[in-house]
Amino acid sequence: MKRVAQTLAVLATLAALGAAAVVGFGLYNVSARQGHLSGVGWALHTTFIQSVRLRAPEPSKIPQDLVDTDRIALGGLHFQSACAFCHAVPGQPRSATAMAMEPRPPHIKDAVASWEPQHLHWIVYEGVKMSGMPHWPAKAREDEVWSVVAYLEAVKAETSPTLPEATCAACHGTGGRSDNTHVPRLDILTPEQIAQALFHYRNGSRGSGYMQMIASQMSDRQIATLAQEFGTARLAAHPVDDNTTPGWLLANRGTDDVPSCTSCHHPKADAIAPAIAGQSQEYLKSQLYLWREGTRGGGKRAKLMRKAAQDLTDAQIAILADWYAAQRPPTPDP
Q1: Which of 7, 11, 180, 272 is spaced 20 to 30 A from 172 at the CA atom?
Q2: What's the start-to-end Cα distance of the chain, in Å?
Q3: What DSSP character marks residue 58?
Q4: What angle do CA 149, 150, 155 make, to 5 degrees?
Q5: Are 155 and 75 in contact (CB under 8 A)?
Q6: 3-state secondary structure of 174
Q7: Residue 292, Cβ neighbours under 10 Å: how many?
Q8: Omega of the bond prior to 103 within 30 degrees of 0, cis?
Q9: Residues forming beta bridges with residue 332, ordered by sequence position
Q10: How far apart are CA 199 and CA 216, in angstroms?
Q11: What is the pLDDT along the chain (334 residues), one digit of tens a residue?
């Protein structure tokens, strides 16, 4: 028994020395042109498959609205700007550069074929080591990834839309008046508010895999120009639905520590916070969830907003979002 132990110890030592030599002297060729040794690629890919299946979210976490056209459009536009370089889009080939990568990124149709939505979510959110596949830029925004998954599911079903050029207007609409319920209208924000949000996205204090991707490539001058293009310098004051509906009561409820929603987001030309009357219900709900979870950042009043939202129930968030979405949005002050 002692001899067996000694033999195993010697073999282990030799294996460790061999591994150290491979690493220390560069004996393993890491050239992408050469690829992996026989069997190594299989082992890595099998490990990847099993790792995804082990760690992916439960199917119960899949949103029910993956077929929503707004979700699909938003996810598709992000895919086009951030992912298509490697995986291409349906009907188009991969670039020569992508084809020269090791491992070679699969074409989008092949990449989604064998995965369920929860697996695709994990891959997009977490990324894959040693493959060139990055993780989602915003750690606290797993919610955004589902829109990309919605687009990938449409690709799998061969119902994905033809994607327009990925511009600001493609998501936020001409002049900032978007019909997509998952993004904010910009035409009811001031240039200063838009610029501030872009600066926060660029420095990472406000998380969004979509917007951090865009803002990280923008200069101060470009941000200022874009803010002027989409924002409205002066918004006219207008009356609000003044009654005793549940939404009105919630929006006007405040405490000694936290002012009411309307005290900051009131529909006046000199409002101290962004206009939210007329924003879409889906967008308002998503932002309130982020504030409640403490993962939304950016702005001097972030701490106050997190405190204001921390005790809201899902039902109350839905009531507030419905009420504000139904209000008449502010208009430019002539």
Answers
A1: 272
A2: 94
A3: P
A4: 90
A5: no
A6: helix
A7: 20
A8: yes
A9: 235
A10: 9
A11: 778 777 878 888 888 887 788 788 888 788 888 888 888 889 999 999 999 999 999 999 999 999 999 999 999 999 999 999 999 999 999 999 999 998 899 999 999 999 999 999 999 999 999 899 999 999 999 999 999 999 999 999 999 999 988 899 999 999 999 999 999 999 999 999 999 999 999 999 999 999 999 999 999 999 999 999 999 877 777 666 667 889 999 999 888 788 899 888 876 656 678 889 999 999 999 999 999 999 998 777 889 999 999 999 999 999 999 999 998 888 777 6
Q: Which helix (H) or strand (E) holds 69?
A: helix 69-82
Separation of alpha carbons 191 and 2, rounded Å = 78
Is residue 120 a contact partner of residue 113, using CB atoms and an 8 Å limit? no
- At position 87, the amino acid (one-letter code) is H
Contact of 181 with 74, CB cutoff 8 Å: no
Q: Which amino acid is at 195?
A: A
Q: Which tokens hold the place of 189?
A: 């924000």
